[in-house]
Amino acid sequence: MSHRYVYGVVDADDALEFETEAVAGAEKVYPITHRHFAALVSDIETTDPERTDEDAKRHDEVLREIMLSNGSRTVVPMRFGMVFENDRALKNVLRGADRAFRRSLREIDGTVELGLKIVAEESDEVDREAVCDAVADELEPLAVDAVDNGLFSDRLVLNRSYLVDRDERDAFDEAIGRIEDDYEELIIRYTGPFAPYSFVNVRVGAQ
């Protein structure tokens, strides 16, 4: 018996089906719809999938395909490993979390998540506060929201995620270019677009 591996939730009007390389060797992503929402899923044979690097990458790539399909879609992303035993269990969650999904879709509508890490060489002495202030001046006016992701290394100067309207994406890219020009001595790691993991707070339990 196959179960339902969930990538994310979209408005029911944005439901779609497509073939792709999905988690655990699945080849198709399709919608399970209940009233206002559609969960985008693939079939899986276990309720406890192993998190491999390959499948974690596939999870993110499926979400990116959903976001970019037909120009753009807003999707509330689920964390890796969200599996439901059957359609009924999944629809129960869609019903029970109706308000949370509605709120999240409204808050992230038309946006993507972009990441920025700034890394110093081990021998460099950097005025971290000055760098962070300059980056904030460039990027925060262009972002809907931003969150710190923690400095897990002594070399990290900045580690932030930004929620950016798609219409501001080009301006944001240009601002990153100016930061790269201003801080050639630092390593600038600019990533995305991602589904906005850092800016949704829907907690549901797999069943």
Task: Describe the protein's architecture and organization.
There is one protein chain. This protein is an alpha+beta fold and 207 residues long. The protein has 2 domains: 3-109, no CATH class; 111-197, Alpha-Beta Plaits (2-Layer Sandwich), CATH 3.30.70.100. 30% of the residues lie in helices and 29% in strands. It has helices at 53-68, 87-96, 98-108, 128-139, 169-182; strands at residues 3-11, 18-19, 28-34, 37-44, 76-77, 83-84, 111-119, 145-148, 156-165, 187-194. Strands 1, 2, 3, 4, 5 and 6 form a 6-stranded antiparallel sheet that branches. Strands 8-9-7-10 form a 4-stranded antiparallel sheet. Helix 4 (128-139) runs antiparallel to helix 5. The longest helix is centred in the first third of the chain and has 16 residues, at 53-68. It is elongated and about 60 Å long. The two termini are 15 Å apart. The mean pLDDT is 92. Its main location: other. This is GvpL/GvpF family gas vesicle protein. Belongs to the gas vesicle GvpF/GvpL family. It is found in: Gas vesicle. Pfam families: GvpL_GvpF.
